[in-house]
Amino acid sequence: MSLFSQLVLSGSIEIKTTPEKIWEFFTNLEKNYKAWHPQDHILFKWTKGKPMESGSNWYGEEVVRGKVFKLKGTIGEVIQNRKIVFKYSFPISLVAPRFEWLIETKGLNSVFIAKSYLRAGDLFYKLSKKEMETKIEMHNEHVREEGENLKKILEQ
Asked: What's the pLDDT score for residue 1?
């Protein structure tokens, strides 16, 4: 592992729905954000451009283990009904450059995959292995809950 090697955290869930329904949910993220994760999600809004469109800017607020995070960025790559890449703005981009949502077809169902990319090589582990492990655990818990909630909402 190099000093700032990339770490990819990933979670997925199979949902009895179409890729189009998942895409529609995310196209309406301003309306759906709080319902998606009521305990943690506070606010999401598109600040420039259209929803789910490359180059659009976004702003979000969420609570993770009691702390409010205010996040903003730009939409990178978009493949309708399949992929959207969210790029964080500076300074978060130094440690977490992006996250992406993928939608894959599996028979009559869809698989939603959330991936987060971190620059978290040996340096971060050496500085604070315990803190790094805690952050990874928090991320995985949050993504798992989002997946379960998305499944409940879309399968109703």
From this structure: 46
Per-residue pLDDT, 28: 97
Q: What is the pTM of this model?
A: 0.89
DSSP, collapsed to helix, strand or coil, labels residue 65 as: coil
Show the domain range for 64: 6-155
Sheet holding 109-119, edge to edge: 6-15, 109-119, 98-106, 83-88, 67-79, 57-64, 41-48
How many other C-beta atoms are found inside a 10 Å radius of the C-beta of residue 146? 19
Distance CA 70, CA 61 (A): 5
Pairwise CA distance, residues 125 & 56, whole Å: 34
What is the mean predicted confidence (pLDDT) over 89-108? 93
Q: Using the predicted structure, report yes or no on whether residue 42 has a pLDDT greater than 50.
A: yes
Q: Using the structure block, give the residue that is written with the tokens 């709080």.
A: 34
Closest CA to 15 of 128, 129, 104: 104
The dihedral sign for the CA sequence 132, 137, 143, 145: negative
Q: Is residue 105 included in any domain, yes or no?
A: yes
- pLDDT recorded at residue 4: 62
| Domain count for the chain | 1
